Amino acid sequence: MAIRRTIILLLVACQFTMGCRSTRQVRDREYAQVIQSAHQANYSPVAEAAAIAPIALELEGPQDVEWLVQIALDQNPEVQAARKRIDAAAHQVPVAASLPDPMLGVTTFPAPVQTAAGNQELSLALSQKLPYYKKLQTASGAAESQANVARAQLATVELATIMKVKQAYYELYFVQQATQVTEIEQQELTKIRDLANARYKTGLTSQQDVLRAELELSNTENDFIRLRQQLESAQARLARILHVSPQTKLLAVNELSPEQAPRDLAFLERQAVASRPELHAQLAALSRDRQKAQLARLDYVPDLTLGATWIDVSSAGISPVRNGDDAVLLTAGINVPLYRKRIDSSVKSMEAQAVATARDYDALRDGTLEQVADLFAQARSQQDMLLLFREDILPKARQTYEVSTSAYSVGQVDFLTLIDNFRVLLRYELSYRRLEATLRQTLAELERVIGGRLPQNMEVIAVPDLPSPEVEGQIDQEEIIPSEEAIRLPAP
After folding, report:
1. ∠ CA 31-102-22 to the nearest 5 degrees?
2. What is the pLDDT of residue 474?
3. How far is CA 70 from CA 76, 86, 169, in A?
4. Is 86:150 a contact under the CB 8 Å cutoff?
5. By the 8 A CB rule, do 159 and 221 touch?
6. Are strands 304-313 and 327-334 parallel, antiparallel or unpaired?
7. Half-sphere exposure (CA, 13 Å, Cβ side) for 114?
8. At the topology level of CATH, where does 60-98+131-301+337-487 sit?
9. pLDDT at 492 over 50
10. Amino acid 491: pLDDT
């Protein structure tokens, strides 16, 4: 019996030792890569250089915004993190649905217990807790609802990433358009300087006009410096979202397709309430909290515990009727939910959390409707201003500048009037390009709020071409030149 007891103890000790040391292999390959990267970051002498992504040469130059959106959805770290959170939450469902580990106990008797059958020297006990079946079902349902929260959060991150790409892209587009407008401005200022210089050489004007034109040309160089800085900042911002090197020379296309503005506010509000992923996340969180409250209520129901005990009985007993047969015991028990106040408090806590989640949903829904209405009003206003600029303000500003140029060449207006009209035209051109980019940024944010693409049945906004330097400034010299007051534009 002593030998058998020793063997059993060795087997049990070996089993526990193997269980502690033989953990299963890591299945997630990305986790292994993260561990390796963390190790290299701590011990590699070139960790800093390895942390900087190389320049994405394939993305340099003009790129379509939809193509960049797809790259961001594939590479953006925030999107990848949200996808992994889904995996983490989904793997918790079988954990919540599984039984707790069985308990194995070993009891030795330093002083053997003497019985009629023989001395008791060793016992092994095995027990398994069996929760009420609805507890496992409810716990797994709560875990699945948490996975649904993670899925909705992934959609939220993806929509936010799309919005960020578009907003950064259209900001880059505006900087490029502003640069083109400034280049045209520089060419026009060169013509004005040459005209002032010609008039100065013939004695028709003072040298002040020439110096003023030279000063305006110097200001354009300052504008180019500022625009280069804005261009590099916009490229770095877009590169960060795409998860590429900030040194990548990303560019927007030179011409955008006609943009569309929404006109049905009620439809957008319905779509936002039905499709916004943040609202779906709150609904999934509410389902999770309701199931947690139900799980807390199930604590009133006791759980069953079944067990078996084997007792090693030796043959060397003092009783004349000893037989040495081992003893086997079967046990069954339940926990007694005696401390009702603890369970009551747990139920009330979970119910209060569910109510708070429902109120958070209401607040988010109200905020969503407010955002939809606000962005809708912004888009409509920006559309109206774009149409006003395209059809009325810009044509008049260009015509006024052309007329003042011709009038200055024959001495009908002074140089300051010409420069003022030129500045006004420049500001209107830049304002139009800013509105053009801002409208698209507003629509990108509206898409994020309503949870998807805008409907197709919307009004189309035409995009006018930039005036070419060869055409601008041409005017019939025999045209009747109006007075100075008639050709002065108010500042925008």
Report:
1. 35
2. 38
3. 10, 20, 13
4. yes
5. no
6. antiparallel
7. 6
8. Outer membrane efflux proteins (OEP) (1.20.1600)
9. no
10. 43
